[in-house]
């Protein structure tokens, strides 16, 4: 039995795949970001986020604590991280 567990441990010990975390959150207002929380992304991969505005107003999108060029209006917006090579944050403040 121990041999099988050892083989599995060796496979899990291979750390050649680098991953990064994108932390997604709503800072204020009535809106949602999907996916939310800590999203794990493989190095070089892309990750999209969808923001839905529930209050009828707009929203301010922040990427790494800087206002993004993407505008979130009443119908919401999408944001895509491409070729991920570092940890990031994405946040939204809704009216």
% residues in beta strands? over 45%
**Rg from alpha-carbon coordinates:** 18 Å
For the termini, the CA-CA separation is 59 Å
Number of strands: 8
Regarding quaternary structure, how should these chains be classified?
Answer: single chain
The top-level CATH class is Mainly Beta
Structural class: mainly beta
Helix content class: 10-25%
Structure overview:
The protein has one helix and eight strands; from the N terminus they run H-E-E-E-E-E-E-E-E. The protein is mainly beta and 95 residues long. It has a single domain, classed as Immunoglobulin-like. A five-stranded mixed sheet has the order 3-1-8-5-6, with no helix packed on it. Strands 2-4-7 form a three-stranded antiparallel sheet, with no helix packed on it. Strand 5 and strand 6 (66-67) form a beta hairpin. The longest helix has 11 residues, at 2-12. The protein is elongated, with a radius of gyration of 18 Å.
